[in-house]
Specification:
- The chain is an alpha+beta fold.
- The protein has two domains: 56 residues, no CATH class; 62 residues, DNA Binding (I), subunit A (Orthogonal Bundle).
- 19% of the residues lie in helices and 24% in strands.
- It is built from five helices and six strands, in the order ββαββαββααα.
- The protein has a four-stranded mixed sheet with strand order 2-1-4-3, with helices on one face.
- Strand 3 and strand 4 form a beta hairpin.
- It is elongated, with a radius of gyration of 19 Å.
- The protein starts with a strand and ends in a 16-residue tail after the last helix.
- The relative contact order is 0.18.
- The site of zinc ion has 8 residues, from helix 3.
Length: 168
């Protein structure tokens, strides 16, 4: 059975939880169901739809967790797409490109690394996007929440979640 996305009262995604946990929170009166799967859950007395997205009724403060700058997190931030040609990639064949090449003083930071296919990486080489005439599809930014969450879903984020987890 599928997982549910838990949102804060502010609609900010917090974590992925099991559907059982989502149902429990719902019956405890802690969350409201925002989206549900087209899939029934039966217990002795009731039938409900499996929750896909639930929202806490009371806001919880959380410590800000800064996502680690790792390969998979960069891929997840970029939705597993080459930031130059848009090709959809699997993590096995995706590469990391330094927008401003390291050889030119570019650093390894969220705003200077992007997901890149091997072909584009080879083509771009030691050039800047401008020099290579390869504009970025979007400006790389530090993500605001753990993109590794989408990675755990193997990049297959349920459609019903997508409104809630667009990365900034
Ligand atoms: Zn590419």
């Amino acid at each position: 059975m599928r997982s549910a996305l838990l949102l804060n009262a502010s609609y900010e995604p917090l974590m992925v939880i099991s559907w059982q946990k989502a149902v429990t929170l719902f019956f405890m009166g802690k969350v409201e169901v925002i989206e549900e799967y087209d899939q029934d859950i039966r217990s002795v007395s009731i039938v409900i739809k499996a929750p896909a997205v639930v929202r806490l009724l009371r806001y919880v403060k959380r410590r800000t967790v800064r996502p680690a700058l790792s390969r998979v997190n960069v891929f997840a931030r970029d939705n597993f797409e080459c930031q130059y040609c848009g090709a959809k990639l699997q993590s096995k064949i995706a590469t990391i490109d330094h927008v401003i090449p390291k050889s030119r003083g570019g650093t390894t930071c969220w705003t200077n690394v992007v997901t890149c296919c091997m072909k584009c990486n080879r083509k771009k080489g030691g050039k800047t996007p401008k020099e290579a005439n390869m504009p970025l599809r979007k400006k790389p930014k530090e993500p605001h929440w753990l993109p590794v969450l989408t990675f755990r879903m193997n990049g297959n984020v349920p459609k019903l979640w997508q409104n809630f987890i667009n990365l900034k």
